[in-house]
Amino acid sequence: MPGTLYLCATPIGNLGDITLRVLDTLREADLIAAEDTRNTLRLLNHFEIKKPMTSYHEHNKYEKARELLDRLHRGENIALVTDAGTPAISDPGEVLAALCIEEGIRVTSLPGACALITALTMSGMSARRFCFEGFLPSEKKERKRILGQLKDEERTTILYEAPHHLRATLAELAETLGSRRITLCRELTKRFEEAMPLTLPEAVRYYEENEPRGEYVLVIEGADPARLIEKKQAVFEEMPLEEHMQQYLDQGLSQKEAMRRVAADRGLSRRDIYQRLKVK
Question: Which one-letter DSSP state was computed for residue 114?
Answer without folding.
Answer: -
